[in-house]
Amino acid sequence: MTTTYKYHFDRHTIYWSIIYLVVFILLGITLYFLYEGGYLSAWFTSFIVALIALMSLSIPRKIVITDEWVEICCLLDITEIRREEIASIRRVEKKQLKWVVPLFGGCGFFGYYGHFFDLRHFERVKIYASEWNNFVEIIDIYEERLYVSCFEADKLIAQLTPKKA
């Protein structure tokens, strides 16, 4: 049996994405007119286009639950966790993640994804979220923490919680 949980962008994420795009475009236009198409404006434009492309390919799209796997599907990448390797799963409030800062990934540009650093526990965590809300923490048997946002968080937790005999 396969269940799919789609990601939904909230208004906050959409506003931040628009702000990022506007700032990138304004910086590109400003550099173009300041340096009249010189080396710096060409380098900046190439860098921003590559950055936007890389970030766009990492945008989380859906969570797919099968009998054996939990898959977090992005536009290009799939993160897979075997269901028997899940040590614990629980719902997390967004205030518990206020000490989490980005190391390498997107923060507000069509979601929150990538590697983050938890300053409270001094460890690296992975986040795949389309909104800064409705978080589910998945800890595997290797003690790696993964956070996903899911509009149906309680249903996801109920489906992934092991049945007790």
Entry summary:
It contains 3 helices and 10 strands. With 165 residues, it is an alpha+beta fold.
Any key phrases for this structure?
165 residues, alpha+beta, 4-stranded antiparallel sheet, 3 helices, elongated
Give an account of the 3D structure.
With 165 residues, the chain is an alpha+beta fold. Helix content is 32%, strand content 37%. The chain has a six-stranded mixed β-sheet with strand order 5-9-10-8-7-6, with helices on one face. A four-stranded antiparallel β-sheet has the order 1-2-3-4, with no helix packed on it. α1 runs antiparallel to α2. It is elongated and about 70 Å long. The mean pLDDT is 87.
Specify the biggest β-sheet: 6 strands, mixed
Order of helices and strands: EHHEEEEEEEEEH
State which percent range the strand residues make up.
Answer: 35-45%
The structural class is alpha+beta
Mean pLDDT across the residues is 87
How far apart the termini lie comes to 21 Å
Tell me the radius of gyration. 18 Å
Residue share in helices?
A: 25-40%
Q: What is the topology, as strand order, of the major beta sheet?
A: 5-9-10-8-7-6
Annotation, overall tally of beta strands = 10
Q: Could you name the ranges where pLDDT drops below 50 across 5 or more consecutive residues?
A: none
Shape: elongated
Number of continuous helical runs: 3
